[in-house]
Design the sequence.
């Protein structure tokens, strides 16, 4: 199950979101599962949906996969809250949307930047080892001659 690590990271981030949210309202952080469960259920649905989409994102750690999971988590979590008699006030919807977006898409964006940086460094290292200039200087055309006599 190749997307299990991403599901675990996302679930931990949703739990952190719930703990911080409860603490910021002077509610007992111990009841964080009451806040988190609708989002956790929607999170699982989001991962399943991302995996089943035609032309889907191929990697669970990709930003596109994260966007699908984020949208489904927020929408589904809010719908489940309302369906079970809890509230979903506009301020909460806005804060949850922004916070979960930063968390669920953010870690994937950071991962993509790190991977891109590693790939760039390995290209820069070249086939001969680290630090070698990957540009073949012999393949570059020499500069055009200058009309300036001082350039000689």
Sequence:
């Amino acid at each position: 199950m190749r997307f299990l690590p991403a599901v675990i990271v996302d679930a931990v981030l949703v739990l952190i979101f719930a703990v911080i949210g409860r603490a910021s309202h002077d509610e007992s952080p111990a009841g964080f599962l009451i806040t988190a469960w609708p989002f956790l259920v929607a999170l699982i649905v989001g991962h399943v949906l991302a995996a089943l989409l035609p032309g889907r994102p191929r990697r669970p750690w990709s930003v596109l996969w994260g966007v699908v999971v984020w949208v489904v988590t927020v929408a589904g979590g809010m719908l489940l809250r309302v369906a079970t008699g809890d509230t979903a006030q506009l301020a909460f919807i806005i804060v949850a949307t922004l916070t979960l977006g930063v968390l669920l898409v953010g870690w994937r964006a950071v991962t993509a930047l790190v991977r891109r940086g590693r790939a760039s460094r390995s290209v820069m290292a070249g086939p001969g080892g680290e630090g070698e200039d990957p540009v073949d200087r012999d393949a570059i055309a020499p500069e055009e001659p200058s009309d300036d006599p001082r350039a000689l």
